[in-house]
Amino acid sequence: MSQTPETSSANAYAAAGVDIHAGDRAVDLMKVWIEKSRRPEVLGGVGGFAGLFDASALKDYRRPLLATSTDGVGTKVALAQALDKHDTIGFDLVGMVVDDLVVCGAEPLFMTDYIATGKVVPERVAAIVKGIAEACVEAGCALVGGETAEHPGLLAADEYDVAGAATGVVEADSLLGAGLVKPGDVVLAMEASGLHSNGFSLVRHVLLNSGAYTLDAQVDELGKTLGEELLTPTRVYAKACLELARSTKTHAMSHVTGGGLAANLERVMPEELSARIDRTTWTPAPVFDLVRRTGSIALPDLEMTLNCGVGMVALIDPDDVDEAVRVLDGYDIRAWAAGEVTDTPGGKVELTGAYAGWTA
User: Fold this and answer.
1) What is the pLDDT of residue 53?
2) Which residues of 227-242 are buried (b: 16+ CB within 10 A; e: fewer)?
3) Does the UniProt entry include the keyword Lipid biosynthesis (predicted)?
4) Burial class (CB in 10 A: 0-12, 13-18, 19+), 171
């Protein structure tokens, strides 16, 4: 029986390593999860060339400022692949993207994703998108579309990478940032869920590539296997931080990602001020000390790479600290006063003291 041109073309592409039918099945499997993240402003469904968002909602703003951010997950995806667990990596992606918007006070509106893989396995792709969509729901934004690309010969069959971009909006006179920061502002720390999504090249090198541990090793101080700890999803702070900005005199926020706490907070510090943070106000989760001790890593190097237990920071009026802690507790986020803004010029952030319970 002769083949139709379409079938012949599809078979030829499959012979080259790209399975169009697997891609179509992946789309079918992910539709239900994408639909769960839908906002009223989203038009159409999955399958169009572009996601549509009704911008007439912005008419209610006096001067709407659009904010945009893009990011990936980094080498944490290697752990998801090694453990064959793919439904949480989406939280890492969304957290890295939308919480960069939130620091300026912007509400995330919609997001798109990009998944590149050596071989499209529909169930695996659907699991990745499931995590992305569920995290979008948690952040309050819509997943309006994306792309799954099959790259045989470039990536192994079980390899993939993920990236995404999001757009948000903030009223111009509600914009947060360095211009609002004042001497005496409290540095309010928000607890991280774990390592989040930065520094995994170091973490993998120290804990795994060195042979110190295996992913299935039960680590008593962690209370779980190493793999379970390392795949702990990134906390998504978006809704909590937006509520914090609405209900308190929050002047600036900083998302603690690559570079660590001090470097990221310095991004929102005015040049005429500085900040001092007291390490004795918290104890990082055990995984941070495990990395430090196993790799004999100097504290400055550790703090320049990992979040060391603080995933987000707000600079707020000292009179609002109790209310801020109460608001964040309502979102199951532990927060505490970790330092203050000083009138020392330079825009620098200094960490003082020693983490409780840590030894040299």
Assistant:
1) 80
2) bbbbbbbbbbbbbbbb
3) no
4) middle
Could you tell me the fold of the domain covering 20-52+63-171? 60s Ribosomal Protein L30; Chain: A; (3.30.1330)
Burial of 103 (0-12, 13-18, 19+ CB in 10 A): buried
Tally: H helices and E strands in the chain: 12, 14
User: Are 88 and 178 a contacting pair, CB within 8 Å?
Assistant: no
Q: 42 and 139 in contact (C-beta within 8 Å)?
A: no
> 282: helix, coil or strand?
coil
pTM of the complete model: 0.90
Q: What gap in Å lies between CA 231 and CA 195, rounded to an integer?
A: 9
Contact (Cβ atoms closer than 8 angstroms) between residue 308 and residue 302: yes
CATH 3.90.650.10 region(s) of the chain? 178-352
The CATH 3.30.1330.10 portion of the chain extends over: 20-52+63-171
pLDDT for 251-310, tens place per residue? 999 999 999 999 999 999 999 999 999 999 999 999 999 999 999 999 999 999 999 999
Please, are residues 231 and 77 in contact by the beta-carbon 8 Å criterion? no
State the Cα–Cα distance between residues 24 and 26, nearest whole angstrom. Answer: 5
| C-alpha 138 chain-centroid distance | 12
Which residues are paired to 152 by β-bridges? Answer: 155
* CB 58, CB 153: distance < 8 Å: no
Alpha helices for 66-168 (secondary structure H): 76-83, 89-102, 122-139
SS3 324: helix
Superfamily of domain 178-352: PurM-like C-terminal domain (3.90.650.10)
Cα–Cα distance between 237 and 235 in angstroms, integer?
A: 6
